[in-house]
From TrEMBL, chain A:
Protein name (database record): Nitrite reductase small subunit NirD
Record organism: Thiolapillus brandeum
Superkingdom assignment: Bacteria
Keywords from the UniProt entry: 2Fe-2S, Iron, Iron-sulfur, Metal-binding, Nitrate assimilation, Oxidoreductase
GO MF assignments: 2 iron, 2 sulfur cluster binding; metal ion binding; nitrite reductase [NAD(P)H] activity
Rieske domain location: 5-100
BP GO annotations: nitrate assimilation
InterPro entries registered for this protein in UniProt: Rieske-like_NirD, Rieske_2Fe-2S, Rieske_2Fe-2S_sf
From TrEMBL, chain B:
Molecular-function annotations in GO: 2 iron, 2 sulfur cluster binding; 4 iron, 4 sulfur cluster binding; flavin adenine dinucleotide binding; heme binding; metal ion binding; NADP binding; nitrite reductase activity
PANTHER family: NITRITE REDUCTASE (NADH) LARGE SUBUNIT
Protein name listed in UniProt: NAD(P)/FAD-dependent oxidoreductase
Cofactor(s) the protein needs: siroheme; FAD; [4Fe-4S] cluster; [2Fe-2S] cluster
Residue ranges occupied by any Nitrite/Sulfite reductase ferredoxin-like domain in the UniProt entry: 574-636
Organism: Thiolapillus brandeum
One GO biological process term: nitrate assimilation
Length: 102, 826
């Protein structure tokens, strides 16, 4: 069973930006969208493993910095017409603190 | 309860409108569609390839039944609407079904025009309009031998070609003396006829059909005599013959808007159902799109205008109420395999027009441009149609061609694009030929995607195949493939292109609004210009961030989250997620201690690779992101600032040795290069911006392919602008010659500022200079001294803010969150 892990205060993640959390087998990109929701996906684009954390966030999507694939932050899936999916993690914000279920 | 929308006519225009509507307002309506044909929406312009056996019907279906279902649309096929009851707002179908509507969309299309001569209703006389006609032709070809196609226009020739492929002996009967007279002039039509005759097609020109012969099935045609009692047939046939045998007659003499239903319902119609610029009929609840429509006196039968109309109608059905349809200019391509032909605009010259012609009978090639006031009015091409899309774009945008008029007929590619050489004849390429060298996309991949996915626009093709989506140099080739695959009137670039999908506004609109309405932050732009997304997208945000910064350098707060990662991390992201670092070396000059410092940094941070760049700087590859701030600190301590090699910014000033050392040097080119770099470093630009200073006309610094280049001569300095050594090599234009270094700096600052203020984001100086014209730039910089000085002053104001070294700031802790990973704490 996975646990909630405390990550950082919400204000440490820039709005429409992201931070990287390193875990044993790779990195997780934690995004804060314009409406102050938080999403977490594996920091690798399904296309060529580009670091999604470095992309531009708009709405609930991020654009990969390498080849402009757009990834839905809720599902981890590439938007049409591209096809592919990256892992997602459950994230929540409680009393201004960001948690991930790992 | 949702409002009800009924679409009458299940064809391309109507369904496209639904697609656009679903994009804008998916939940607005309960939608019901009635179609007369028993099929879901198919690609009518692909009927010719179906007839020619190159495609099956399944392959040309655009929206299968599943699509209607998954979008919650009720579809009734094979059941035409026979009555519109406007008072009770309901439609009645042939099967007796009654459906009420709140909004009605008419897209009834058109009917083939059947010449009203005796016998025209005999079995064996058909049009060429739908799948049933194609079935009839294929069936006829199994038993009959001789086919006659009446009409030597686009549709008629495609029908004739298809019948010929099906094994019939085909004669095309045409009223005029030239084929496709609405699209071609005499020489091009003659070449077309010759090519088709070589394929085995026969022609009867200037022949007017008087009667279709036969009793229970067509057996032939009889032609009218002229006033002197002679058979009015001159071309291709012995005098005196006035009849011809036929087992099948295809009438392809034109189409008529299908407006019976609308007329019966009392809607105002002239040649078609009359609509205004919002695609609304005289009944405000009823909209109409497609071939049934008459707009500003015009009826359209090509697909591009229909799609533009669809967009507008959808916008109003979605109650957004901002789009207007203002008519279309169309272009044509004939879909007969092996024949390349293109026409657009008004191609028959009138008084005051000039005609440019390039003709080579041996290569079976003909190009004609009709020009008025240095703007293209029309184009006809046969044989080599590669540049058709380019000419069409120049025509639509009303571009002044005076600067390249002398070479325009040789095409856009007379200067050779990187990666394509002179390979311009798309039709001649095999299907495994690589079109997009960046993404490895072949001609076959593109054609396959266009056909199986039903693509019509360049953006569609880019999204699905990635062809031309990277460097863009193959855009012309991709457009040519698109137009030859889709055929007549694929959707060409609109002359006013929106910044992105978040808005209807163009770059120029945005630039103007930011200045005139003093919009000084991004939320103000979004709300003032009614952006349709809450926080833009990865395309518009960097553009807006630049425009705001360029216009309000002292007021606007740069938004890091609206910058591409390279400009946020101040390094160039590499494919493995590491960064490259280029320290600035003004004018390319360096000292032993500079080099030692760089070498020490490379040792300390284990930089895996170093390289000398084309711009005379040193590039350090493979730096981990978290190492960037400490590495920058070491470089900063050694006196370096950021080289901005990662940004849409002033990059480098390349210099040659100059007169300090070189025996040919006329001026101090390195010294001037350093001064120019000190003036311009740190400046954000619409795109990257490179300079060079050469000490003499031997031009070792290659100044004539830079955005701003200086070539020193004994008597002063030549200033060159708008060069590019990238995808498309472009040699600079000479702006002027000046006498002193001070003037070089002033002119450089003024030119740079003008580019910063006027160019679109991501537009290099080369296309910008071509777009606005050299004359426009000279007017403001050469002829108007006050204007030049004002531009230079504004540039210097911006530089006060811009010349803060981003590396030093980050080495001291700015934006630390960008570089540090988060730790899991519990």
């Amino acid at each position: 069973m996975s646990d909630w892990k405390k990550i950082a205060p919400l204000e440490d993640i820039p709005r429409l930006g992201s931070r990287v959390v390193e875990i044993e087998d790779g990195s997780i990109a934690v995004f804060r969208t314009g409406d102050d929701q938080v999403f977490a996906v594996r920091d690798a684009c399904p296309h060529k493993n580009g670091p999604l954390s470095q992309g531009i966030v708009a709405g609930h999507t991020v654009t990969c910095p390498l080849h402009n694939w757009k990834i839905d932050l809720e599902s981890g899936e590439a938007l049409d017409p591209d096809e592919g999916c990256t892992n997602t993690y459950v994230a929540k914000v409680e009393e201004g603190m960001v948690y991930l279920q790992l | 309860m949702k409002e009800r929308l009924v679409l009458v006519g299940n064809g391309m225009a109507g369904v496209r409108t639904l697609e656009e509507l679903l994009k804008l307002a998916p939940e607005e309506y309960d939608i019901t569609v009635f179609g007369a044909e028993p099929y879901p929406n198919y690609n009518r312009i692909m009927l010719s390839p179906v007839l020619a056996g190159e495609k099956t019907i399944d392959e040309i279906i655009l929206n299968d039944r599943e699509w209607y279902e998954s979008n919650g649309i009720t579809l009734h096929t094979g059941d035409p609407v026979v009555e519109i009851d406007r008072i009770n707002r309901r439609v009645v179908s042939a099967s007796g079904m009654e459906v009420s509507y709140d909004r009605l969309l008419l897209a009834t299309g058109s009917n083939p025009f059947i010449i009203p001569v005796p016998g025209s209703d005999l079995p064996g006389v058909i049009g060429f309009r739908d799948i049933a006609d194609v079935d009839a032709m294929v069936e006829a070809a199994k038993t009959g031998k001789k086919a006659v196609v009446i009409g030597g226009g686009l549709l008629g020739l495609e029908a004739a070609n298809g019948l010929m492929i099906n094994g019939m002996d085909v004669t095309v009967v045409h009223l005029m003396d030239i084929l496709m007279e609405r699209q071609l002039d005499k020489p091009a039509a003659g070449m077309l006829r010759k090519s088709l005759e070589e394929k085995g097609m026969k022609f009867l020109m200037e022949a007017q059909t008087a009667e279709v012969l036969g009793e229970d099935h067509v057996t032939g045609l009889r032609f009218a005599d002229d006033a002197q009692g002679r058979a009015s047939v001159v071309g291709g046939r012995k005098p005196g013959t006035t009849e011809i045998e036929a087992d099948l007659v295809v009438m392809a003499v034109g189409i008529r808007p299908a407006m019976d239903l609308a007329q019966k319902a009392g809607l105002y119609c002239e040649r078609g159902v009359v609509v205004n610029d919002t695609m609304q009929t005289y009944d405000p609840r009823i909209y109409a799109v497609g071939e049934c429509v008459q707009h500003r006196g015009q009826c359209y039968g090509l697909v591009a205008p229909l799609f533009e109309q669809a967009k507008v109608a959808a916008n109003h059905l979605a109650k957004m109420g901002i789009a207007r349809y203002e008519g279309s200019v169309t272009s044509t391509k004939l879909k007969v395999t092996g024949i390349d032909l293109f026409s657009a605009g008004e191609f028959n010259e009138e008084d005051g027009d000039e005609t440019l012609v390039l003709q080579d009978p041996a290569q079976n090639m003909y190009k004609k441009l009709v020009v008025r006031d240095n703007r293209i009015k029309g184009a006809v091409m046969f044989g080599d149609t590669m540049d058709g899309t380019w000419y069409f774009q120049l025509l639509r945008e009303g571009t002044d061609i005076s600067a390249f008029r002398s070479t325009i007929l040789f095409g856009q590619h007379d200067l050779g694009d990187a990666g394509h050489g002179d390979e311009t004849r798309v039709a001649a390429l095999s299907s495994d030929a690589e079109i997009c060298g960046c993404n490895g996309v072949t001609k076959g991949d593109i054609i396959d995607a266009i056909q199986t996915k039903g693509l019509f626009t360049l953006d569609d093709v880019r999204a699905h195949t990635k062809a031309s989506a990277s460097c863009g140099s193959c855009t012309g080739l991709v457009e040519a493939i698109l137009s030859s695959t889709v055929g007549e009137g694929y959707e060409a670039k609109p002359s006013k292109k929106p910044v992105c999908g978040c808005t209807e506004h163009s770059h120029d609109d945005v630039i103007r609004a930011i200045a005139e309405h003093e919009l000084k932050d991004m939320p103000s732009v979004f709300s003032f210009l009614e952006w349709n997304t809450p926080d833009g997208c990865a395309t518009c945000r960097p553009a807006l961030n630049y425009y705001l910064l360029a216009r309000w350098p002292e007021d606007y707060k740069d938004d890091a989250q609206s910058r591409f990662i390279n400009e946020r991390a101040h390094g160039n992201i590499q494919k493995d997620g590491t960064y490259s670092v280029v320290p600035r070396m003004f004018g390319g000059l360096c000292t032993p201690s500079d080099l030692r410092a760089i070498a020490d940094v490379c040792d300390k941070y284990e930089v895996p690779e170093m390289k000398v760049t084309g711009g005379q700087r040193i590039d350090l590859f493979g730096v981990k992101k978290e190492d960037l701030p400490p590495l920058w600190k070491d470089l900063t301590d050694a006196g370096f600032v950021s080289g901005h090699a990662y940004g849409k910014a002033m990059r480098t000033v390349k210099t040659c040795a100059g007169k300090t050392w070189c025996r040919f040097g006329t001026q101090n080119s390195t010294g001037l290069g350093v001064k120019l770099e000190e003036l311009t470093w740190g400046s954000w630009m619409p795109h990257k911006f490179k300079l060079a200073v050469s000490g003499c006309p031997r031009n070792c610094a290659e100044a004539t392919i830079k955005d701003f280049g200086v070539v020193c001569v004994d008597s002063g300095y030549e200033l060159h602008i708008g060069g590019n050594g990238g995808i498309k090599v472009r040699v600079t234009d000479l702006l002027c010659k000046v006498d002193t270094e001070e003037e070089v700096l002033e002119y450089c600052g003024a030119f740079t500022q003008m580019y910063r203020e006027e160019a679109h984001y991501l537009e290099r100086t080369a296309p910008w200079v071509e777009r606005v014209g050299l004359g426009h730039i000279k007017e403001r910089i050469l002829e108007d001294e006050a204007e030049r000085k004002a531009l230079y002053e504004r540039f210097k104001v911006g530089q006060k803010v811009a010349q803060v070294d981003p590396w030093k700031a980050r080495a001291e802790g700015e934006a630390a969150h960008e570089f540090e990973p988060l730790k899991i704490s519990a």
